[in-house]
Amino acid sequence: MTSATSYEQQQQKLNDSNRRLENKLKEREDEYTSYKQFYILCGTFNVNNRQPPTNANLDEWLCRAGKIPDIIAVGFQEIDTSGGAYLYDDKKKEDEWEYVVNNTIQHPAESKSRYYLINRVRLMGILLFVYVRSEHKKKCTAVSRASVPTGFMNITGNKGGVGIRFRFYETDICFLNCHFASGDGQTQRRNEDYQTIESRMVFTDGPTYSIKDYIWHTPAPSGANPTTNNGQPVTSRWWKISDHDIIFWFGDMNYRISQANEQVRKAINEVSMIPLQEKDQLKCEIKLDRVFKNYQEHTIDFIPTYKFDPGTDVYDTSEKLRTPSWTDRILYKVKRKKIHSNFNNEKQIQDETDVVKPLDYFCARTVNFSDHRPVSSLFLSSIKYLYDEKRSNSIREQLIREFDREENDAIPTIDVYPRPPEVKFVLIKYLDKSSYKMKIKNTGECQVNYTILTSSRFSAGDVKQQSVPLKPDEYFFNCLEFVPPVPSSIQAKEEQEIDVIFNVKPEYASLFTNKKQLNEILILHVENGADTFIILDITLDMGPFGLSLDQFPVTLFNRSTNTYVYDVKQIPDDGGDDYSERQENLIEMKKDPPALYLALIDCLKERELDLIDIFNADTQDNLDLIPLRNEIYNHNYKFDKYENSDLLMILIHLLQCLPEPLISTQIQKKIFNSGRTHHQLTNSSSQYLPSGNTIQSSLPLSTSHRVANVSGSIPNEMKNAVTILIEQLQPKERNLFFRLLVLFQKIWPDEQDKQKNDNSQSHRAIQNCIESLSLALLHGEVNSQQRHLFIRACLEDDRSNSNIPRSSSKTIK
């Protein structure tokens, strides 16, 4: 073991030396590199779920007089926002838009200007094409594509980003097309969408796999395994967005103008754009260093591109009367802003030249069939065209000799602030998302690579694999998030701020209920350097979130008023003559759910609820549950002033935070687990169907990768399974389940309502509702298909001929 560890350390040391050599060599690449300038055109267009018109003319958008681009990247958003886009991959709309783009950019009269599609990638309504002129086709290598969803729960692909990267001659280029969260007040959500895509998008030239665990997101495969000339597999390479020499990031970023609607429209009419740009959310967020760090954008000299009445030049006149904004943007980033070149065989380049120089930036106002206007920008880019191997080798030998004169064992060193290093979160409540800033300064002469770990993943200087499970007392680590994400690196003499974010996830809430104080140690591990211990100090107050039903105070019922007592303060202990009488009227309802659950359910059942409206994306994006949570923490259960969406989502949070799901794990395994045998099941006849088959053999297998649709017939076996589940519940759990069932059946949309609201938004809302309710009742113990069928069996059964027992006065008062 010691010998193996020593060998690994020597290899690591050698790798560090080689990396340093390559970095130094790259710093001098202008001395052995020939550059050539190429035109690159980027375009973005939100088509608002419109099909390409039969007479579509996109020349104004994608063509430039006198300048033929060498690379064309075209991004679309909302090519398909129908409910079907969540369920299956339909290539028809992709092909339609590819046909239109092809017809626009191809120039038959000039053979050199024919274009070749090197790749395309789609995430639901987000689509990206990248073309190169045919003469450059052989110089495009290491082509890869990727996608990252940022929609509901970071699962659905209605929002997110797609990317295509490749090596063009000797330059690594990445094109990204995105669609961020909508809404005037959703700047932070848009920032989070950017951060999610930036941190999670990874490209590889190795194989990727798509597992359809959810019907609404199917990542695109990147292709077959690459092989060498002799047929041997090539070792997979991986690239993050930041690894590329040139990055073009465009799309419907949805940033708005933070100014009154009428003032914006007046400024547009007066062609007064500069004051509006000062209120542009994206420019403000970039200036505050919150998003798109080191990205650049050409000067905007066109009118806001959103939102128009389709087919006109008139800004939105609908009921919502949206504020015109520059939602559609094109940004770029380069590793080196300037290059120096002493030679070029074909085209003379100045001694100092911009790597990327924007030539124009405008919107195509004549393309008006959508509520957006398409935007495009033409760039002149200096590409690493040819390497002089002889000169490169000469410089390499020179550098090696220089390194021989230096100390070989450069040890990275850092300073961590505050001192002593600690992270403190004070009085964290459920739903709080608290942030604490740390600063790491690289005081050494080499790059610092670091990560932050728990003690279970670190031992004697060795970092264990991420697959090593956390110890039982280290579950807190799954509630921590680091921005930028770790592992990360810091260049020599630079510093980096880290936001440490703590947010209690529902599945861990019960583990924090018995801990008011967390004192833990995190390890900031520096590769080949000294490690730093960080004190993590957290004080917590989970309130009722994470408590089991039996941990709540017993529920009281007042016989004289025939109502539940939601607040014991309603019965003053004043010692009066009628105090004993008041006490006699109170009954302990030991088999009834806690008063908090009853108060929420009773308040909701008295209202007219619209599930489609509650689970609509706009409603969910604008939820603020903190005021209602604070009332619950103060044991104030008067909920009349709160919105339906707030009350229902808090109820779902309470159910998701239960230590055991309402339908216990044991019951779920007994009913749903297809691998159990007759001997392993109990002898209760209720576990068998009238046909004689076991429930397990009649339900979908737990290994299925399909998810139940929100429509269609429900197997009778599932309805029978619901009956069996109910029979095995404990009295308090059964009582609460019946109350929830009565509430949700009352407000569940019937077939007439679904047909009345048959559109993509309603379809998504019902899907989100089914997923939330199924996780609330079952947690994640069974697969999504079984959960969804279970919820639908509970809510969509035939009321007049149902196998599910109905609540009675004995169970629900």
TrEMBL record:
Coiled-coil regions, chain positions: none
Ranges of compositional bias, category Polar residues: 1-15
Region entry Disordered, spans: 1-22
InterPro entries: Endo/exonu/phosph_ase_sf, Ig-like_fold, IP5, IPPc, OCRL-1_2_ASH, Rho_GTPase_activation_prot
SMART domains to which the protein is assigned, alphabetical: IPPc (SM00128)
Name under which the protein is recorded: Inositol polyphosphate-related phosphatase domain-containing protein
GO terms classed as biological process: phosphatidylinositol dephosphorylation
Highest rank taxon of the organism: Eukaryota
Span of the signal peptide: none
GO MF: phosphatidylinositol-4,5-bisphosphate 5-phosphatase activity
Inositol polyphosphate-related phosphatase domain residues: 36-387
Species, as recorded: Didymodactylos carnosus
